[in-house]
Amino acid sequence: MFNLDIIITFVPIGISLGLGVIVYAKNKKNLSNKIFGGLCLALILWAATNYLSIHPSWFPALFWIRVVMLFAVFLQLMFFLFVYLFPQNHIPALNLKFSSLLFLTLATMLASISPFLYSKLNEGSIPVPGPLMPLFAFTIFLFWGLSAFYVIK
Fold first, then answer.
1. N or C terminus: fewer CB in 10 A for the chain?
2. Side-chain-facing half-sphere of 61: CA atoms under 13 Å
3. How far apart are CA 108 and CA 147, in angstroms?
4. What's the pLDDT band for 143 if we cut at 50, 70, 90?
5. Distances (CA, A) of 110 to 16, 21, 71, 103, 116
6. Stated pTM of the model
């Protein structure tokens, strides 16, 4: 049977996989290529778990929704790193700002898979936001803002 969800999910996964492998394989030592490969990997993981959250198998939908949120944070981090570091071929020394962003990312990723981001599902599989949803929103908007700043800069 024809399922549009499969096409909408797996065509971008295939394109991201192909593009990520090509870019990474072109120069495996280049930092920008590694970060771009990580960005493609993050997109693939996010899209695949998003599909599984809509069509749950193996685990309940709430588990997959939490994993989607985890990969959403990882995806935003990878996009920010790509924008911030491109076209450099080295990572600048870890300063307090960068270390704080990494700590915030790890804390948000841990919160994403806990019951504190989504506590349960309502009728119709709608997740109920928990007390740490503002942390998730802050982290996502922070990375969007920083990414936009470095794109414009």
1. N
2. 13
3. 18
4. very high
5. 26, 28, 11, 11, 10
6. 0.89
